[in-house]
Amino acid sequence: MNDYEIKLVRLQGEFVWHTHADTDELFLVLDGTLTIQLRDGDVTLLAGEMYVVPRGVEHCPRTDGEVRAMLIEPIGVVNTGDAGGELTARYDDSLSD
Amino acid sequence: MNDYEIKLVRLQGEFVWHTHADTDELFLVLDGTLTIQLRDGDVTLLAGEMYVVPRGVEHCPRTDGEVRAMLIEPIGVVNTGDAGGELTARYDDSLSD
Questions:
Q1: I need a surface site. Which of A34, A71, B32, B85 has the fewest CB within 10 A?
Q2: Count of C-beta atoms within a 10 Å radius of residue B31
Q3: pTM of the entire structure?
């Protein structure tokens, strides 16, 4: 939508602590329970619940089982933000206009 | 999120035909059945289904019963687009930063 992507993702386990300096990031949980760890406390989202991580705020998603979620963020945002590492997803532009 | 608003709305009946010249508009149905009438056919969305009306495309939402939905669009977009009229919502900026 405009210059944003709506991503449907499956999450399992613990991700890496990272920050997106230039954008907020919206999480909407579709199934399962997602914990978004923040440096000043956890945010727990059940199915149908939503949270926006503000730009510049360090966060680390974590799940107990599998979680299906919708993410909304600008096109081209790197999933691991400033952290990089082996969990960095290759950017797939095959669905872009 | 960034310069976008996530709106939770209740829709009932037929809206007005209108166009947003400058932005796409995302509809995600939470409950009920929403028909987005387009000039070249209808799009019917059930709960959990999503559609993005491209900028410049004339559309008219219609429901049989009540529909709960999530809309995502840039801050300040007028609900009736270019059409105006009595269904135009006063913009509520009381929740803005």
A1: B85
A2: 14
A3: 0.83
